[in-house]
Amino acid sequence: MKEDLKNYIDLDYKKFSERTIYTNREILGIRLPILKKYAKDNKDNLDLIYDNTYHENTIINAYIINTIKDYDLHLKYLLYFIDYIDNWATCDTLKFNIKDHELDYFNLSKKLIKSKNTFYRRVGLRILFSFKNNKEYLNKIIKIINSLYKEKEYYVNMCNAWLLCELTIFNEDYIINNLNNLKLNDFTKSKFVSKCYDSFRIDRDTVKILKEWKNE
To answer: Which listed site, 25, 64, 89, 103, has its alpha carbon 20 to 30 Å from 19?
Structure first.
């Protein structure tokens, strides 16, 4: 991969990435549109997923895994790949098509969230983003969010706040009517309200209610 993409290395982007992405792997400095195109052009070469030498490898592999439509095959490569996730950027590149396998993915999410590995837990939360407009699972997701009250890891708490913000976008009345049922640590609570404030998809009156709730 490095030989194929070395002409696209951008040293300024490399410096930027090294300031914002904390990974144990070398960052080459290749912009995402190039990595996405590389993944698209090589999406049938699943053997690439076994090479995670550089940070850019992990991004390409996440893109490739996203294209796998067969559930069992997707699960096989996902479970292999998550051992190589050590940063938010790689984690958040993953997407999940839960259609016809909602229960399977929900149970996988619960399993990952119980892991001691920080990014296993973040991947578990990221799966739940695919349920944001699924009313059937809303109460269950809130219970998972509340279960992370004692969470200490920054990347898990941030993702938990982000998830709750996304749920609010699609279920605004439900969240507002159930604020007293939320059990969030102070960090997550603050970040949740902040993300809602920054979102143009949430009504300003709702944001006002959330800010007052945060300060109670």
So the answer is: 64
What is the 8-class DSSP label of residue 96?
Answer: -
End-to-end CA distance of the chain: 53
3 state DSSP class of 98: coil
The pLDDT tens digits of the residues spanning 15-68 come to: 999 999 999 999 999 999 999 999 999 999 999 999 999 999 999 999 999 999
Tracing tokens 């279920």 back to the chain, one arrives at 171
Q: Which residues contact 112 (CB under 8 A, 6 or more apart)?
A: 82, 120, 121, 123, 124, 127
Separation between Cα atoms, residue 9 and residue 17, nearest integer Å? 12
DSSP state, residue 26: P
**Residues 6+ away with beta carbon under 8 Å from 95:** 66, 130
Helices (H), the chain: 2-5, 11-20, 32-41, 55-66, 71-81, 88-93, 102-113, 118-128, 138-147, 154-170, 172-177, 186-198, 204-214
* CA proximity to 89, closest of 114, 64, 58: 58
**Could you count the other beta carbons within 10 Å of the beta carbon of residue 53?**
13
Tens digit of each residue's pLDDT (9 = 90 or more) over 62-116: 999 999 999 999 999 999 999 999 999 999 999 999 999 999 999 999 999 999 9
